[in-house]
């Protein structure tokens, strides 16, 4: 009998559903929310309302794309946390209701573990056939143990992964996350939300050596990005004062390639901060397999830098396809599939949680 898992992801502002059949990804549907762009960030109340509108059509589409009827499902996996509580409640409630109606078990998944398990998603031939960006792409899965740099809007962590259910955070941010630094600095420059992709785009044509920004000196494997944000803000303030202008737009008229050079300098600094700690951890723990996960892992500069670092150190680098880097249900389905095989089920009264660690 086939093992078929339907997964639901609703931790932030993307509603996603995916289906895995006997370990192979059959579908992965994502509905994004454009409403937050005008506010320059995710508005929790609007996000939860949009999830309520999106979740039924998204789940229906995932089942249809997979060629699966809900009566064939073996279990429902869902993101229990961390994330926005209102958004999580929508996904959790839907998962519970569907599982009860079908008399099948629930499987809870930690969102952060899900990002790491994205490295083990194995697309089916049918899924690849309908996703041109995956055609011809080599998908490699790391062997245990490996180190995973988990970077997103809310998290910057170095995780030692010894098994799908045995992970240890050995380093993490003590204040802001790398993704938050990208987004907030982008907002100061007047770039649209989300700012990370815009910084990545402009950095490709900028000079990373123009603006030196402060780098923290934090012990161990932990990170800090609040000082970098302050350094970035002060740099802009001093430039505007020196040129006697009040806005970034006015400053850009006087300084050629201002935003491009700022983005390149900022991105290079963040990547250097991230990889310095990863390299230290890998050397200290004698682990030669390095993976990256989370939304910020879509950053082309970070992906290239990790590959280059591993090449120089004679290590193995593992980078998931772009479609599995941001919030998506495929990673939740993969984690849920392994937990289902271990009969690691979730009680029906389990409540979502906004904050937790791996």
Summarize, please:
With 358 residues, this protein is α/β, with parallel strands linked by helices.
Task: Produce the secondary structure layout.
Blueprint: E1 4-9, E2 15-21, E3 24-31, H1 44-66, E4 75-81, H2 85-102, E5 106-110, H3 111-117, H4 125-129, E6 146-151, E7 156-163, E8 166-172, H5 178-188, H6 195-203, H7 226-242, H8 248-254, H9 258-285, E9 289-293, H10 300-313, E10 316-318, H11 329-341
Parallel strand pairs: 1-4, 4-5, 6-9, 9-10
Antiparallel strand pairs: 1-2, 2-3, 6-7, 7-8
Helix pairs in contact: 1-2, 3-11, 5-6, 5-7, 5-9, 6-9, 9-10
Please summarize the sheet with the most strands.
5 strands, mixed
**Number of E strands:** 10
Mean pLDDT score: 94
The string of secondary-structure elements, in order, is: EEEHEHEHHEEEHHHHHEHEH
CATH architecture of the largest domain: 2-Layer Sandwich
The fraction of residues in strands falls at: 15-25%
Helix proportion: 40-55%
Description:
With 358 residues, the protein is of the alpha/beta class. It has two domains: 4-139 and 324-341, Nucleotidyltransferase, domain 5 (2-Layer Sandwich), CATH 3.30.420; 146-320, Nucleotidyltransferase, domain 5. The protein is 42% helix and 17% strand. It contains eleven helices and ten strands. A five-stranded mixed beta sheet has the order 3-2-1-4-5, sandwiched between helices. Strands 8-7-6-9-10 form a five-stranded mixed beta sheet, with helices on both faces. Helix 10 links the parallel strand 9 and strand 10 (316-318). Helix 3 (111-117) crosses helix 11, helix 5 packs across helix 6 and helix 9 runs parallel beside helix 10. The protein starts with a strand and ends in a 17-residue tail after the last helix.
